[in-house]
Amino acid sequence: METDGRTPLEAALGPAREAVARWVGGVERGAHVVVLCHFDADGVGAEALFGRALARLGFGRVSVVHSERGESAFKERARRRLAEMAPDALVVTDLGVHAAGVLPGVPTLYVDHHRPEGLPGGAATVVTGYPWEPIPASAWMAYDLLSPLADIADLAWIAAVGTTSDLGDRAPWPELPAIRKRFGGKAIREAVSLVNAARRAGAFDVETALRLLMHADGPSVFLDEAHPDTARLRAYRLEVQTELAQARKTAPVFASTGPFALVPLDSPCQVHPLIAQQWRGRLKGHAVIAANRGYLPGVVAFSIRTAREDLVLPDILRAVDLGEHEHDVGRGHDQASGGQLPPPLFNRLMDGLGFDARVHVPLPTQRLLPESE
After folding, report:
1. Which of 165, 222, 149, 126 is nearest to 46 (CA)?
2. 253-254 and 260-265: which strand pairing?
3. pTM
């Protein structure tokens, strides 16, 4: 399918590039620009591209910061943290798009590929890849959007790291094969593994991975066993592999009604998305929920994955009455979603999805609730 001789991706990219160029052109070069990203490889990849490209465009005050574990960009904890940085302009990438916005009144550029939850008003420019064909990764978007504005060809490997992390070695980004050939597929795959290990480990040391992406000349640094940062990331990967091996021993519990399977976990590492993805391939007729009660204090963090295109997971999760915590679930993609809930509401969600009391998480004497502002 083509549009005026262009592919659907090319047709969508043109207006998106114009929107980003207008936003960049409207921000003074002396302004303090804060870039906020999700903490996975796609998010920090997109952030590193924005951070390094904006510096090359003459912005002298650029700060990069990632979301914290269990934090939403659209709630008060993140807003307070960002407001303390006193940004004159804000870039938010790979964290979704929400009608509430992040810092109303601050000129904000959203670059994202998840299903939008409304559009923020005020001084907001939104570039969402969700309607694009194919849907891109955020790092892929960042590279394609910034390339006409700054010479960042030497940073294409960062986009490849984020894109490969989200969409795999065969991601449908037309530039990816050439980038892999230029910079080395082995180095890019190692970068994906180590960058993700940083956020999955119990230490949640995203800063080390982000520092490498912000300063390295290429992905070969991730193959350098003598580099102190890569050595630290390798230790994190070993920790995650150990936890993952234990988690793989847990068998799923099937719902009494409905196409759902639950894998209960208790790990300080972020292994639940990996377990959900692995069981997705084995239980193709189900939506697999990997629920981890050890990742966040007093909270059940869960990921849900399905191979069934007829199951729109955000809609299914939000069909269960969770009161003010409705928006603590259902972000992400149609077939890859999740959330974070205190045990009583997680149990209510499981009831709503057709499970019985066998899967209920015990209620702690004192529990910490996720943000509900």
Report:
1. 165
2. antiparallel
3. 0.90
- Report yes or no: 269 and 202 within 8 Å, Cβ to Cβ: yes
| HEC profile of the chain | CCECCECHHHHHHHHHHHHHHHHHHCCCCCCEEEEEECCCHHHHHHHHHHHHHHHHCCCCEEEEEECCCCCCCCCHHHHHHHHCCCCCEEEEECCCCECCCCCCCCCEEEEECCCCECCCCCCEEEEECCCCCCCCCHHHHHHHHHCCCCCCHHHHHHHHHHHHHHHCCCCCCCCHHHHHHHHCHHHHHHHHHHHHHHHHCCCCCHHHHHHHHHHCCCHHHHHCCCCHHHHHHHHHHHHHHHHHHHHCCCCCEECCCCCEEEEEECCCCCCHHHHHHHHHHHCCCCEEEEEEEEEECCEEEEEEEECCCCCCHHHHHHCCCCHHHHHHECCCECCEEEEEECHHHHHHHHHHCCCCHHHCCCCCCCCCCCCCC
Query: Long-range contacts of range 204-213, CB-CB < 8 Å, 24 or more positions apart?
Result: 204/39, 204/69, 205/232, 205/236, 206/39, 206/44, 206/66, 208/232, 208/233, 209/41, 209/44, 209/233, 210/44, 210/47, 210/48, 210/64, 210/66, 213/44, 213/45, 213/47, 213/48, 213/158, 213/161
Q: Is-contact 193 237, C-beta < 8 A?
A: yes
Structure tokens at 91: 């870039």
Q: Which amino acid would we find at residue 59?
A: F
Sort strands 336-341 and 299-306 into parallel, antiparallel or unpaired.
antiparallel
Q: What is the spatial distance between Cα 275 and Cα 267, in angstroms, rounded to a whole number?
A: 12
Q: What is the pLDDT of residues 327-352, one digit of tens each?
A: 778 888 899 999 999 999 999 999 99
pLDDT for 148-184, tens place per residue?
A: 999 999 999 999 999 999 999 999 999 999 999 999 9
Report the C-alpha gap between 185 and 277 in whole angstroms.
Answer: 23
